[in-house]
Amino acid sequence: MANENKKFNYGLYVVAVFVIVTVVLVLLAAFTFKSKYVAFDPEKVAVNYTDSIAQKGDGYNAYKYTMLPQGDKYGDFIRKQYIYPVVYPGYEVGMDSKAFDKLKENGYDTDAFKSDATKNDDGSLTGDLTEAMYPYYVELIETYGWDNYDAVFTNYISKLVETRKAMFGDEYMSDEVFFTAFESNVVSYGNSLTGTEEVIADDGVTVTQKESTGLYQTIYGENYKFTTSVKETEEITDIDTYKAALDTDTLASYGISADDITAATAVTVDVALENGDVITSVKVYEVKIGSTWYVDNLTTSTASAYIAAE
């Protein structure tokens, strides 16, 4: 009889979404540790970087293998470059800490900007906001791709502020609002490619995740499997010319300079089906800083890694 009464409970589903996001954040911590562990081997870096994109179209977390968070934690980089200027009007990267603390007193993340809808939200309205933002997230990825992360973050947070204000009726905004919506959208996008299995709550009745067929399953079959492996590795011998081509302002925003780079290489990675058929190849450029290898996201093009777009 339990199966006959099984139904989809949207309210519980919204709660489940945030449980899933919490789990994802824990996994991302492990992901960050893994990225540090493999960082001494350029081929491992290239394979892991490409695999994270090919498996779930996840260019967002792939950046943890790049130069971008080298001088800052990834989340802090996003906060300083994109979130703080919106939450704290007048904020500038690198501003005096005392001046920043003063701005925080009247930031949009303070209680003064919370409407009753924000104060009383049990997660349902936040879930609605996350779902409302998802089509725009997909649009940004299809328009810019993750190689242009600046356009993705800048446009997304602008749209998020607008959409949230219309739904909640206030101007409240925080880094938590951003990361909850954005990282949920990243997960949803990956699920749209890989498909999902039905998940039932502990009550044995309530559906907290619907079963779905992903785009990859439609194209490559229900039991598809991608593998990533190194095709070839090329040492870049003219390191001075290579470094001269890098944008110094962007490097500075990462907390590094071209002088920090002591070597560079290019690793071509094949993405193949289980039967060995190569679907696509990605040429990953990397630079060495200290004893660690980082993907040079300023030079590497990841367009071919997004298999769904092929």
Give me the secondary-structure topology:
Layout: E1 7-8, H1 10-38, H2 42-56, H3 59-62, H4 74-87, H5 97-104, H6 116-119, H7 124-144, H8 149-168, H9 175-194, E2 199-200, E3 206-209, H10 215-220, E4 226-235, H11 239-244, H12 248-253, E5 261-273, E6 278-289, E7 292-295
Parallel strand pairs: 1-3
Antiparallel strand pairs: 2-3, 4-5, 5-6, 6-7
Helix pairs in contact: 1-7, 1-9, 4-8, 7-8, 7-9
Q: What would your notes on this structure say?
A:
There is one protein chain. The chain is an alpha+beta fold and 310 residues long. 49% of the residues lie in helices and 15% in strands. The chain contains twelve helices and seven strands. It has helices at 10-38, 42-56, 59-62, 74-87, 97-104, 116-119, 124-144, 149-168, 175-194, 215-220, 239-244, 248-253; strands spanning 7-8, 199-200, 206-209, 226-235, 261-273, 278-289, 292-295. The chain has a four-stranded antiparallel sheet with strand order 4-5-6-7. α4 (74-87) packs across α8, α7 (124-144) runs antiparallel to α8 and α7 (124-144) packs across α9. The protein is flat and about 60 Å long. The model is unreliable at 1-10 and 28-35 (pLDDT under 50).
